[in-house]
Amino acid sequence: MVSLLNTLAKEEDSLVDIGCGTGQTLQLISGQTRIRNLFGIDPSLNSLVEARNKGDFTLIPGSILDDALVASFGPRFRFAVLAFVLHHLIGRTRVESWRRAQAALTNATCLLQQGGYLFVVEEIVHPSFVAGYAFYLKKLFSHISAERIDPLKTDFSLGAPVVSYLTTYQLRRMVSGTLGLRVVNMHAQEKALRRVYRLAGINRIATVTLVAQKTL
After folding, report:
1. Which pLDDT tens digit goes with each residue over 110-165?
2. What is the pLDDT of residues 152-194, one digit of tens each?
3. What is the total count of domains within the chain?
4. Is residue 216 pLDDT above 90, yes or no?
5. What mean pLDDT value characterizes the chain?
6. Which of these, 207, 23, 30, 16, lies nearest to 107 by C-alpha position?
7. N or C end of the chain, less CB within 10 A?
8. Residue 184 belongs to a domain with what CATH number?
């Protein structure tokens, strides 16, 4: 992401990190690119307090699913980042979760200037039915305990936080199906599969970075 930003960006360009958390991505972009107009949006006030200590960013409390917040900004950013956000937009079912992820992509597109770029970074899990089992299993355990349950010391714990992972195909289809977006680049960084993952039926885990340009 940083190398492509350095190819595309000018110093006067602006970037918004959607779901910026504690500001790690903003700090990276600030230190390794020429972009200086950096914004972050996150629903967690505690995370924004930490982010404020990492650089000179404009930080806004709120959710990308808040249509009024998105409308208040309008299409003002040249770049937008959605890093490890979509799988946290949880509904009652997998289908409802996908709809929330699609709504986030639509609203992120509304924040972009025409010709601007959206960077979507997601951890993907194959096959889809295993991610579906994990979603409902984690939902079940989250009603039993609010704590993270990870007896095997893996990245995929039971209980909170509940997540809804996409496959590569689902992610690309979701982004390319967003009105006004055209996928221009995609890169996948594969992760080694531990034996416990294979036993659970997982045959691929990767971090996918997908870049789309706003054409409308």
Report:
1. 999 999 999 999 999 999 999 998 888 878 876 665 566 555 555 566 666 889 99
2. 555 566 666 889 999 999 999 999 999 999 999 999 999 988 8
3. 1
4. no
5. 90
6. 16
7. C
8. 3.40.50.150
pLDDT classification of 87: cutoffs 50, 70, 90: very high
Question: Considering the domain boundaries, does residue 116 fall inside one?
Answer: yes
| Closest C-alpha to 100, from 85, 115, 114 | 85
Segments forming the whole domain that contains residue 116: 63-125+164-191+206-214
The answer to whether residue 24 is domain-embedded is no
Q: What would the DSSP string read from start to end of the chain?
A: -HHHHHHH--TT-EEEEET-TTSHHHHHHHHHSS--EEEEEES-HHHHHHHHTTSS-EEEE--TT-HHHHHHH-S-EEEEEEES-GGG---SSHHHHHHHHHHHHHHHHHTEEEEEEEEEEEEEEESHHHHHHHHHHHHHHHHH-SS-B-TT--SS-BSSSP--PBPHHHHHHHHHTSTTEEEEEEEEEE-PPPHHHHHTT--EEEEEEEEEEE--
Cα angle, residue 164 at apex, residues 198 and 157 outer, rounded to 5°: 55
How many Cα atoms sit within 13 Å of 91 on the Cβ side? 14
Q: Is residue 151 part of a domain?
A: no
Burial class (CB in 10 A: 0-12, 13-18, 19+), 75: middle
Q: What pLDDT is attached to residue 148?
A: 60
